[in-house]
Amino acid sequence: MLKVENITKYYDNFCAVDNLSFTVKSGEIFGLLGVNGAGKTTTFRMIIGLLKPDSGIITLNGKPIDYTVTDKIGFLTEERSLLTKLTVSEQCQYYGILKGMTKIEIDKRLDELLEKFKIKDYKHKKIKELSKGNQQKIQFITAILNKPKLLICDEPFSGLDPFNVEMFKKELAQMAKEGSMIIFSSHRMEHVELFCENLVVLKDGKNVLSGNLTEIKKQYRKKNILIKGKIDIDKIKQIDGVIDIIKHPTEYEIKIQDLSVKDSVFKEVSKSSDITKFAVEEPTLNEIFIAKVGENYE
Question: pTM to 2 decimals?
Answer without folding.
Answer: 0.86
